TrEMBL record:
InterPro entries: AMP-bd_C, AMP-bd_C_sf, AMP-binding_CS, AMP-dep_synth/lig_dom, ANL_N_sf. The lineage of its organism: Eukaryota, Fungi, Dikarya, Basidiomycota, Agaricomycotina. Residues 464-551 form the AMP-binding enzyme C-terminal domain. The keyword Ubl conjugation does not apply. This is Amp dependent CoA ligase. It comes from the Eukaryota. The keyword Transit peptide does not apply. Keywords: Ligase. Residues 32-414 form the AMP-dependent synthetase/ligase domain. GO terms for molecular function: CoA-ligase activity. Pfam families: AMP-binding (PF00501), AMP-binding_C (PF13193).
């Protein structure tokens, strides 16, 4: 059967506006009345940027880029930086000129950045000074000119132009102002705004072409979902005067759309910071933060630390009224711990893909709590079908692969027609996620189909086992992959990061403690899961490899598994 949202999407998506025109220049009927409120707050200094200042700074920077670099229509600029108070202005200045933005993680390797520069065909680089050496090394590899590298923050290294320099030049009025890119009717649906790289959890990252219309559509979809059924009794949704932390990286689609564009459209003030657990806690108290958008590793760190660390427990989190977790499925076990940590807040999950310009489902504003394990309900305008292994459509409550259709679909993969044909099928995106949709309309993501472990005739979801493992007192973090087995085909193999206390005990007695804790971990799962789901091997790691958005890089773990030996006493 086909599934769709209970709330209809009104015909209010402009198809002739660029993203900054939609966000900064016009008064959309679903947007709260514009006031000169603080849009952004720089966490480290407390400096605030008002709506008027943000708009003026975007225009000035666009003018500076035009004058200094002749940057214009369909030119591509890459930003390599942690979240920064001037990051949004840089994105929208690029869009004012008709250009395309692509974001790179500041934690990229030289090879990764080289790959992104080549795939995106960027002609300009914005870089935070802390990542300047990385950018220079990548630029040298592909003979990218140093004089087209712009630093995002002061102090500016000698010989480089800064974003502040360009903003000053652009606001001086000494030269002819730039001609802003104006879209014709319907052009927003084909005009690319963002090349957003997919997570690369199962293969090399691909550049997804997201249009102005797609991003705007998803903001409007979330807005309608947010206001539908909202009431004072739930204290719900995103509203003017709310304060949210902007800690998801803006180079990732979830940070870009869900943690920047959607909250700003709703009149929310964003506290911009580079994530660490303690700085997040301090910001919640300092700015009376009301909204949190987190990814599973942050939830794990927060719930584990709150349970064990007196330094974390001292923070008063009662200002938080709304918590969403996205980017990867959160197990029911972790969801329950999050509910316990924020007993008075709305708590739920949000789900989407880069290929759908993010959000497909999220916690409705009318619900104070989402059912454990649910990633919410479909947004207005989203249609879904669940396809079983035999190609037939699943009924409500039956598992299968999720296909979705939405106004926010991306165009496809940049310069990769073959991959586009595999995933973008007519008006549908083949997600690669195994899901079920309940009769009540709740969407449950079981796992990535490529990541499911096949034990005999049974499918085992790694996320289910990881949620169980995280309940063990010695486990700080974990990941589960399948390893070949002559009898069962595959069996679950667990990579585990131990807590600080457990690591210390391991140092004191590596052999005996290692044997005991492995046995304890496997027994913990055995007592809670069916026999075919039981962990057969355990290996300790210092850290689980993940994308910046928090998704586990299982391909790296599988590669490690193929070339490593099994530790003594690991097998049951």
């Amino acid at each position: 059967m086909l599934f769709s949202a209970s709330t209809a999407l009104p015909d209010v998506i402009p198809d002739n506006q660029t993203i900054p025109q939609f966000l900064l220049d016009t008064q959309h009927r679903l947007c709260p009345r514009r006031k000169d409120y603080p849009c952004l707050i720089e966490e480290s200094s407390g400096r605030s940027v008002t709506f008027t200042e943000l708009r003026e700074r975007t225009f000035a920077l666009a003018n500076g880029l035009h004058q200094r670099f002749s940057f214009g229509d369909n030119d591509i600029a890459l930003i390599c930086s942690p979240n920064h108070v001037d990051y949004p202005a840089a994105i929208w200045a690029i869009h004012r000129l008709g250009g395309i933005f692509t974001g790179a993680s500041p934690n990229s390797t030289r090879e990764e950045l080289v790959n992104q520069l080549r795939k995106s065909e960027a002609s300009l680089i914005f870089v935070h000074p802390a990542s300047l050496d990385l950018a220079l090394a990548a630029a040298k590899t592909i003979q990218f000119p140093d004089d087209r590298i712009i630093t995002l923050d002061a102090p500016t290294p000698t010989g480089f132009v800064s974003l502040s320099d360009l903003t000053t030049e652009g606001s001086s009025g000494c030269s002819m102002p730039f001609a802003e890119r104006i879209l014709s009717k319907g052009e927003g649906k084909s005009k690319v705004a963002v090349l957003c790289f997919s997570s690369g959890t199962t293969g090399p990252p691909k550049a997804v072409s997201i249009t102005h219309y797609a991003l705007i559509a998803n903001v409007i979809q979330m807005t309608v979902h947010n206001i539908s059924g909202a009431s004072a009794s739930t204290g719900s949704g995103y509203n003017p005067g709310d304060i949210s932390l902007m800690i998801l990286p803006l180079n990732h689609v979830a940070g870009l759309i869900c943690n920047l564009h959607f909250p700003l459209f709703s009149g929310v003030t964003l506290v911009v910071q580079k994530y660490s657990l303690l700085s997040m806690m301090e910001s919640i108290v300092r700015y009376a933060v009301s909204h949190l958008l987190l990814v599973p590793p942050q939830v794990v760190a927060l719930t584990k630390a709150s349970d064990r660390d007196p330094a974390v427990r001292k923070y008063d989190l009662r200002s938080v009224r709304h918590v969403l977790c996205g980017a990867a499925p959160l197990s029911p076990e972790m969801s329950s711990l999050l509910l316990d940590l924020f007993p008075e807040a709305q708590v739920g999950q949000i789900y989407g893909l880069t290929e759908t310009a993010t959000t497909i489902s999220m916690l409705p504003a009318r619900e104070a709590r989402g059912p454990l394990g649910s990633v919410g309900q479909l947004l207005p305008g989203v249609r879904a079908k669940v396809v079983k292994d035999d190609g037939s459509l699943a009924a409500a409550g039956e598992p299968g692969e999720l296909y979705v259709s939405s106004p926010s679909l991306a165009l496809g993969y940049h310069n990769d027609d073959s991959a586009t044909r595999d995933v973008f099928i007519n008006e549908w995106v083949k997600t690669g996620d195994q899901v079920l949709i309940s009769p009540e309309g709740e969407l449950y993501v079981l796992d990535r189909i490529k990541e499911m472990i096949k034990v005999k005739a049974f499918q085992v979801a790694p996320a289910e086992l990881e949620g169980c493992l995280l309940e063990h007192p010695d486990v700080l973090d974990c990941a589960v992959v399948g390893t070949p087995d002559a009898y069962s085909g595959e069996v679950p193999f667990a990579y585990v990061v131990l807590t600080a206390d457990a690591r210390q005990r391991l140092k004191e007695d590596a052999s005996e403690f290692g044997r005991k804790v492995r046995s304890s971990i496997m027994a913990h799962v055995a007592a809670r899961k069916s026999r075919y789901k039981q962990i057969r091997y355990v290996e300790f790691l210092d850290a689980i490899p993940k994308t910046p958005s928090g998704k586990i890089l299982r391909r790296k773990l599988r590669s490690r598994l193929h070339r490593s030996f099994l530790l003594p006493n690991a097998k049951l």
